[in-house]
């Protein structure tokens, strides 16, 4: 497996980053996960835009987006696979053992893993912890992901594949690695970015392609929604057949199934929409 590090391709087994890299010691970094279909990245321009936004938000030096694009193409060419997940990681770089950044500049790492097509529907749970809709990291795709790791582990314990958070004022927000949509009286709604959720790329495409509305929603909307679905780079559009103890028989329901179809048709036509 070849990865991109320090400006070029390297063997994964021998590639090295400093043990004092701030991505490792303090979670000072940002990332993107990009789907790759037969070696071609999906929506790469949107991912690069978000990477640049996350870097600005974290006060990291602006990433060289031409290099990141070149790195993605090089890693994909070097590791042929049918369905892959490119992982772009960009950290504060090698620095002192504290929270101040050092002078050694950022680390850019691009790696590739295999991915699989997700089932059409899945189970989710809600967790008692909240997303902060007004934090310094809100809306940034940072490598400070441990809260998501804990919540996902809680979901797995309950036979679910995703955990959903409310924000600090009790509104439905997002999953550990996905955005959430609900269907009420035939209309699709998703929490606005102001709820504290990540501006998901799949979310944006789904809103554009289905006409979903951005609506403040209480967490308990999950107890009465006719349908619930998730969006993310690796799930695309995925129905939900259980929320906590509530079954949603027949998921994906008709509105979700239509959203899945629209997404598949539109996304299939354009790998960089
Ligand atoms: N929310 C969080 C916290 C995420 O980590 C992700 C993706 O990993 C998403 C939402 C979905 O975003 P995207 O559609 O860009 O993959």
Account of the 3D structure:
The longest helix is centred in the last third of the chain and has 16 residues, at 254-269. Helices cover 26% and strands 31% of the residues. The radius of gyration is 19 Å and the shape is globular. Strand 10 (179-184) and strand 11 form a beta hairpin. With 273 residues, it is an alpha+beta fold. It binds pyridoxal-5'-phosphate. The site of pyridoxal-5'-phosphate has 13 residues, from helix 5 and strand 13. One of its GO terms (molecular function) is lyase activity.
Please sum up the structure shown:
It is built from six helices and 15 strands. 26% of the residues lie in helices and 31% in strands.
Class by SSE composition: alpha+beta
Number-wise, the strands total: 15
What is the terminal separation in angstroms?
28 Å
Residue-averaged pLDDT: 96
Name the quaternary structure. single chain
Report the sheet with the most strands, covering strand number, pairing sense and barrel closure. 9 strands, mixed
SSE sequence, one letter per element:
EEHEEHHEEEHEEEEHEEEEH
Which cofactors or ions or other ligands sit in this model? pyridoxal-5'-phosphate
What is the gyration radius calculated from CA atoms? 19 Å
Number of helices: 6
Q: Stretches where pLDDT falls below 50 for ≥5 residues? A: none
Helical percentage: 25-40%
| Net shape | globular
Strand residue content: 25-35%
Subunit structure: Homodimer.
InterPro entries: Aminodeoxychorismate_lyase_IV, Aminotrans_IV, Aminotrans_IV_CS, Aminotransferase-like, BCAT-like_C, BCAT-like_N, Class-IV_PLP-Dep_Aminotrnsfr
Pfam family, one: Aminotran_4
Catalytic activity: 4-amino-4-deoxychorismate = 4-aminobenzoate + pyruvate + H(+)
């Amino acid at each position: 497996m070849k990865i991109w590090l320090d400006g070029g391709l390297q063997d994964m087994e021998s590639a090295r980053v400093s043990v004092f890299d701030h991505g490792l010691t303090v979670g000072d970094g940002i990332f993107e996960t990009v789907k790759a279909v037969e070696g071609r990245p999906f929506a790469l321009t949107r991912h690069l835009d978000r990477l640049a936004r996350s870097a600005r938000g974290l006060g990291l030096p602006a990433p060289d987006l031409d290099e990141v694009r070149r790195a993605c193409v090089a890693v994909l060419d070097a590791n042929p696979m049918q369905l892959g997940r490119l992982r772009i990681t960009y950290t504060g770089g090698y620095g002192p053992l504290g929270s101040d950044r050092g002078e050694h500049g950022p680390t850019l790492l691009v790696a590739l893993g295999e991915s699989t097509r997700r089932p059409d529907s899945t189970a989710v749970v809600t967790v008692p912890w909240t997303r902060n809709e007004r934090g310094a990291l809100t809306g940034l795709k940072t490598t400070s992901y441990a809260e998501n790791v804990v919540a996902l582990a809680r979901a797995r314990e309950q036979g679910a594949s995703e955990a959903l958070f409310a924000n600090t004022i009790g509104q439905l927000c997002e999953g550990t690695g996905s955005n959430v949509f609900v269907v009420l009286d035939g209309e699709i709604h998703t929490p606005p970015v102001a709820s504290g959720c990540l501006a998901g790329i799949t979310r944006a495409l789904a809103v554009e392609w289905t006409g979903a509305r951005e609506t403040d929603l209480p967490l308990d909307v999950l107890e009465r929604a006719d349908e619930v679905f998730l969006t993310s780079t690796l799930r695309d559009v995925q129905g939900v057949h259980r929320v906590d103890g509530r079954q949603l028989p027949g998921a994906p329901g008709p509105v979700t199934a239509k959203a899945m179809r629209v997404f598949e048709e539109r996304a299939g036509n354009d790998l960089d929409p």
